[in-house]
Amino acid sequence: MQPSVDAIEAERFRQFIMGVTDYAIYMLSPQGVVITWNAGAQRFKGYHPDEIIGQHFSIFYTDEDRANVRPAKALAVARASGKFEDEGWRVRKDGSRFWANVVIDPIVNPEGELLGFAKVTRDITERRVAAEQLERAREQLFQSQKLEALGKLTGGIAHDFNNLLSVIMNGLELLRMARDPAIVSRSIDTMSRAAQRGAALTQQLLAFARQQPLLLAPHDAAQVIRSFETVLHRALPDAMRLHLRLDDGLPPALLDPTQFESALLNLVVNARDAMDGCGDVHLGLSAVTLADGEVARLPAGRYVRIDVRDGGMGMTPDTMARAIEPFFTTKEVGKGTGLGLSQVYGLMQQCDGALTLASRVGEGSTVSLYFPALAASLPPA
């Protein structure tokens, strides 16, 4: 009697499976006993067929996995869900371990009776080692970038404080020699501003380290800006102008006035530097209603928005993508800490608000801050 075509095809397929060397492909009984064994399984698990057939497949698991009943759980998951897939350590005949990708499929007859399991195992140790090496390389790069960033921060802070100390020392020298009251007054004003800038720099560092207390409360943002307007004007040289556009009747915003003022000063100073000390800075204040997720990840609702716009050279997409990174700066070494925009971004996160950037090369930049607005109005001052 000649074998049927189906029988011939089945035998060819069996021989093909048995000859595969890149994968361990074998059958298990419903109880998990090995009943077939191919060349691939022998190659990277080390057992000859006569050594392993009849053994329970848990022999390939580590002691820890057997103690946690992982082999039995794997078969239970495969039977219940139609497939089990996992990665983990497996043990060879000689006791060495390899990292394996495992797939177990149940085999059932037309009546739904479980006949056994088909198990495919791949040795992916090299892939895991490569992934670990890549992760270590990334970690080393990250550490290197942190050291580079700290170097930039240290240089920027040292330069800023040195400038402030120079202003104060020069002022003291003028005071020692001056007889004109006007010169004395100007020297005192100059030294006072230098001391204020030193205090602001310290606040930047504290805010960046999250050690500057944040006192959130409802405030009239327009009133806070007007009371701070003189300081903002003084941050600009004579060749620059600050234009305010503050809408009336705005709802109160949830903010910390001190940190809010520091953020405004940072943005105005950034705008000044973007234009090399010549041009106009525009500061706008308005109320907006946003849909859910319309800006960053803000929920739907009312917000008070502050826009600070400059007429500088603008930013490239790469620069915009890194603009809020701590220590990132496009200024020359020693000309800035790179903390300004990062500090403002951190403040907005703490306030449950958002910071957005809009910029095109040659057309300037706009930084927008969104503070949550409250429904109730503030009582008269």
From TrEMBL:
Keywords, in A-Z order: Phosphoprotein
Enzyme class: transferase
MF terms (GO), sorted A to Z: phosphorelay sensor kinase activity
Domain PAC residue range list: 84-136
Domain of life: Bacteria
Residue span, Histidine kinase domain: 156-375
InterPro entries: HATPase_C_sf, HATPase_dom, His_kinase_dom, HisK_dim/P_dom, HisK_dim/P_sf, PAC, PAS, PAS-assoc_C
EC number(s) from the headed UniProt entry: 2.7.13.3
Catalytic activity line of the entry: ATP + protein L-histidine = ADP + protein N-phospho-L-histidine
Residue span, PAS domain: 9-80
Pfam families in UniProt: HATPase_c, HisKA, PAS_9
Protein name: histidine kinase
Naturally occurring in which organism (per UniProt): Duganella lactea
Source species taxonomy: Bacteria, Pseudomonadati, Pseudomonadota, Betaproteobacteria, Burkholderiales
